[in-house]
Specification:
The chain is α+β, with helices and mostly antiparallel strands and 151 residues long. Helices cover 25% and strands 28% of the residues. It contains four helices and six strands. It has helices at 24-37, 57-60, 74-81, 140-150; strands spanning 7-11, 43-53, 69-71, 84-95, 123-128, 132-137. A hairpin with a 3-residue loop joins strand 5 and strand 6 (132-137). The chain is globular and about 40 Å long.
């Protein structure tokens, strides 16, 4: 692969030897794998979250005063996603920056073009229509790590 500005990978339930995709446990495994190799701590911004869960989505993913859902560590996000039975949709944006510019009229969503939806994004994970997790990332080393681990 030449040196693109970002890398793409698709991970479905088949990669986990499971019949269903987009489960909380699968996303937990993906986030743990990212955390194994990611040296910088990431702040996670969440959008378009829908799915079935053991706990209310509003309790798991509370928004701040500006309507933004964010977590200040990958560990914190892992602790939340494991309560999800299956995601219908969801956009998880990992950034090294605490303050990123968000257009409130045009927030990221799962069915957008497969490219970064916000500036200053390191990793974007999308739960796509119960089918798979689409992952877009800048770091080639993480891309190869995820590819070797899950595909």
């Amino acid at each position: 692969m030449s040196n693109p500005s970002y890398y793409k990978i698709e991970i479905s339930g088949k990669c986990f030897n499971e019949d269903i995709s987009c489960t909380g446990e699968q996303l937990e495994s993906i986030l743990q794998a990212i955390n194994e190799i990611q040296t910088d701590s990431l702040i996670w911004y969440l959008f378009d979250i829908f799915g079935g869960s053991k706990v209310s989505l509003f309790e798991l993913f509370p928004s701040n005063d500006f309507g933004i859902i964010n977590f200040f560590s990958t560990y914190e996000l892992i602790g939340r996603v494991k309560h999800i039975i299956q995601f219908e949709s969801g956009v998880f944006i990992g950034s090294k920056f605490k303050n990123i510019e968000i257009d409130f009229e045009n927030q990221p969503h799962s069915e957008a073009e497969l490219e970064f939806q916000l500036n200053q994004t390191s990793i974007e994970i999308r739960a796509f229509d119960f089918e798979c997790f689409e992952i877009i990332l800048q770091d080639e080393m993480i891309y190869h790590y995820l590819k070797n681990k899950f595909l």
